[in-house]
Design brief:
By secondary structure, the chain is mainly β. The protein contains 2 helices and 30 strands. The chain is globular, with a radius of gyration of 24 Å.
Length: 403
Amino acid sequence: MGHPKESARWATNANYASPGDPWDGTPTKVEPPTGKTDEGWEPTEELAAQFQNDWQNKVGLLTDYLRLIQPKNWELLRDPIASGEDMFAIGYDASTGTFIASGTNPDLSTMVSRDGGVTWAKPGVTVPANAIGVANGIDADGAGNWVIAGESGDISHSSDDGETWATVAIAGAGAGRDVRFDPISALWVMIAGTPAEVHTSPDRTTWTQRFTNAASSSTTDIDISPAGVAVVTTTGSGGGAGSTLRSVDMLTWVETVLPAPAGAGLGAAGVTFSQGSGLWFVTARSAAAALELFSSSDGSVFAEVVGHDLPNTEGAKLGSDDGEMLLAGFGNDISNDGGNVYASTDRGVTWVLAAGIAAGVARGPLDSRVLGSGTFKRYFRHLAQRFYAPTENGGIWRTRVAL
C-alpha cells in the first residue's frame, strides 16, 4: 500500500475534510476500524457518485468494447442454411418476451420465438401470402401488438403477440421501409418511398400520410428517442443531397438537407440515437461510395464527425446500445467485403472490426457462409440488452453478452 495520495477513494470518505488537494484532508471524526491499513488511509466507502459513475462508465464502455470485438462474441440463433428466405428485420416485445423476425416472402419467413431466441416457429396464422411483399421493418408496442411494414406499401399486424396476422392496405403509400411505435404519442410510424413518405396510425388499421416530398427518392431508416423525438433518413433525389426528417409529435415533420461535404450524389443510409451520449448519428454516402458520418445533439442540425475512420462503403446501417456503443453494419463494400460489423465507443471517431471479413479473412463466426453482398439487409436492433442482426438465408445473429 502506498501513500494515501495514490488512492482516489481516500478523498471521497465522508470522515475527512479536504480544504485543498484530496490528500491534504484531515480526519473529522474517528476513522472506522476497517478504514485504515498499515500504511496510509484507504477507507472502505465507495467513490462519491460523480467519480464512481464516471469511472464505472469508462470501464464499462471499454469492457463492452473488448467483449464485442472478440471473435466468438456473436452467436447464431437461427441457422441460415435451413432457410431459403433472407431475414430483413427483427423486433422484440419486452412485455411478453417475444421476438419476431421476417424478410422475403413473409408468409414463409416470419418466425416467432418466445424463449429468448432459443427456438423459432411460424405463427399459428401466418402473414397472408404475397400481401405485403418483402418485410422491411417490424416493431411492437409493448402490449403484444405488432406491425410489419412491407415493400408493397401495406402492413400486416397482430394483436395477439404474433400468433395471428391480418393485412391492411395503405392507400397511395410507396414501398414500406421500416416501422416504429412511439410510446409518447402512442402512434405507429411507417416510413416509405418512392417518394419519401411518413405515415402514422393510432390503431394499426387507420393510416394517415404526414409527410411526402417528391424531390426525395426514398426514406431509408428511422429511430425514435425515449423522449419521443424521431429522425428519418432519406436518399435525396437522383444524385441530390441526402436529408433528415425530424418530428417531436410524429405529426409534423421538418426536412433538413445534410451539410457539406455531403453535397451532390450523397444519400443518407442509417440513423440511430445513442442514449449514452445523447447524440444522434447518421451515415450517408457519396456517388463515389465514400462514407460520411454526422452527429447532432437534437436531431435537427447535423455536423460531420471529424476524424472518423470507417472504410468506404455503399451504405451503412447503424445501431446503438444503452451506453455509447455504436455499431455500423455494411451491405456492399467497394472492396467487396460486405457484411462487416464495425464498433465504436468514442462517438464515432474510431472504429474496430467486430465481425465479418477483412481482406478475405473471416473474423469470428460471421463467416462467408452468411456474409457477402448485402448481408445485413436493413438494420441492427438493440433488443433485450443484446445486438441482433438479421442476415441472408434466414440467419439471425446476436452478441453473446449483454451490452
